[in-house]
Amino acid sequence: REAAEGKAASRTITGYAILFNTPSAPLYAYDDEEAREVIAPGAVTKELLDGCDIKMTMFHDRQLILARSRNGAGTLTYGVDEKGVYFEFDAPNTADGDKALELVRRGDISGCSFIFSTHYYDAAYVTRDVKRENGKTVVTYTVNVITGIYDFTLAADPAYPDTTCEAEARELVEELRGEEPET
Asked: Does an H or E element contain 100, and which?
């Protein structure tokens, strides 16, 4: 539609890099044991994000930077809601930006991942639940406190398979958020 009206196609990519209360793919899986991770609501706050230097990358490759937020300012925007941490950025007019946009538009990349830090073996930060299901020991690590976030990344095989990313027309994004379209 935009191209037909003589406007440039949108380069906006949006999605959820972090989902709360959603299990990861198995961290490890053996015949008799499996472990997954869950990020608890409250583990990530806007204040935490605003204190970090977050790079939006492809495939966790810090050479493929698509956007960035340093202490809450920059080309990467984000927020926290009941679902998780969402983001938005305009793909840069670079070979990497074009590649990211095309792979997301085609659906070849439809998920995200992130790099974070916590005190994994401190029960105040991460709790461990063990139960038996279908003859298998299932370990669930619930991350209650994240101490830093370093990247959001577009990923073909994200650790959290339910994360999302999509390239959308700006008008659709604004309509869904109840904003007035830019003129």
From this structure: helix 95-106
Q: Would you call 42 helix, strand, or coil by DSSP?
A: coil
Beta bridge partners of 136: 133
Query: Are the C-beta atoms of 22 and 31 separated by less than 8 Å?
Result: no
Strands (E), 40-147: 53-58, 61-70, 73-74, 77-80, 84-90, 111-117, 126-133, 136-143
Cβ proximity of 81 and 177 under 8 Å: no
> 128 - beta bridge partners?
141
How many Cα neighbours within 13 Å face the side chain of 87? 34
For residues 154 and 79, give the distance between their C-alpha atoms in angstroms, rounded to a whole number. Answer: 17
* Residues in contact with 52: Cβ distance below 8 Å, sequence separation at least 6, in sequence order: 69, 71, 148, 149, 150
CA 134 → CA 32, 138, 155, distances in Å?
10, 9, 31
- Number of H-type helices and E-type strands within the chain: 3, 13
pLDDT (tens digit, 0 to 9) for every residue of the chain, 183 residues total? 444 455 678 999 999 999 999 999 999 999 999 999 999 999 999 999 999 999 999 999 999 999 999 999 999 999 999 999 999 999 999 999 999 999 999 999 999 999 999 999 999 999 999 999 989 999 999 999 999 999 999 999 999 999 999 997 444 445 555 555 554
